User: What shape does this take?
Amino acid sequence: MIHRLPKYMRQLELLHQNGVNRVSSAELGKRMGQTASQIRQDFSCFGEFGQQGYGYNVTKLRDEIANILGMDRGHTAILLGVGNIGRALAENFCFANCGIDLKCAFDLNPEKFGKNINGIEVKGQQELEEYLARNPIDIAVLCVPKTAALSLTELLIACGVEAFWNFTGVDIALGHGDILVENISFSDSLMALGYYLKNLLTA
Amino acid sequence: MIHRLPKYMRQLELLHQNGVNRVSSAELGKRMGQTASQIRQDFSCFGEFGQQGYGYNVTKLRDEIANILGMDRGHTAILLGVGNIGRALAENFCFANCGIDLKCAFDLNPEKFGKNINGIEVKGQQELEEYLARNPIDIAVLCVPKTAALSLTELLIACGVEAFWNFTGVDIALGHGDILVENISFSDSLMALGYYLKNLLTA
DNA sequence: TAGATTGTTAATCGATTAACAATC
DNA sequence: TAGATTGTTAATCGATTAACAATC
Assistant: This one.
């Protein structure tokens, strides 16, 4: 269910930008392709944000969800591995929009040390432990090659990192019951699309 | 459930590389953090791939799953939008490993026309309709800005594209009931991690 | 044959949907 | 007040897990 919260956020922000002040669960459901029931059920897990006969105030609801998502917490992150995808994230992705403060990046390649990507400094990986000892970090963004994924994860756990945004395609959560992991696996997603093409359209 | 199939593939490939020939649902479940029951249930949807008292032959099962995922179909794809993420995909991501044949890319910026990224030619977007009329394409990889997402999707649908690998963060599926969409939304995923940090660790 | 392990049926669990009293 | 719409309880649906006969 949690994965629907960001979608609600996005839709509410859109409504707000279009000058809409209030929305009912029925309207929101229609826009998002869900039942009104599910929307009310989802929100009621966290509180009573609506009003009978009126619906929900768009900005109020958006702010409540932002709060639920911890966007005001100032969670901090570091980026591990400034390869193609790591660089694309640092250059292009707005961590601040998700309420995350990306502090710096680490890489093994000395040619990249000291470089500045969109305001993010690239440090040498040998500085990692010392850095984490001084600067507590909430989230590690893993963009290293598969071969480095597991050992780096263990090092980061040992340094106190508890949450991982994992682009490596390796199942780092296994055997580490107490960490939080969100996986972005391009190949899993694309393979699923291949499945749909073969099995849903030929039907 | 379909989203577990690529993970099975990956795990079986790993076992194969380690020289393992057979695996039971219990072993596989232990490795992947699932019940043996679920694994047997999943596979039995598609056929009888195991043998009582023995388990599953690793390579046979892997090949069966590859087949289910349509990896031998030679599905074709084009990439729309050669910005940061589009370039990272073209340069770095192995479409062939997912059984997808990436044919070429399209962009609006004339400076990019004719460029070759990892063997992928960048064409001008004005050539898109003509290209699709001559070359039927299964999958559109959408890496364009949010503002272009919806209109481009409609153009592509009109040109006969039925499957979308969607990196835009826009819900393109709404109102187009008959297309297949796999979304990769960085911000949705990162926001979910923010939620976990706030709500699961403080508990 | 005895042991192991499947495929499948039945039981359980959780998530979605429907219904409706409460109330703005 | 009448109409609209919430929050919540109950019903339904689907997915996961447990159990076990079949059989390699």
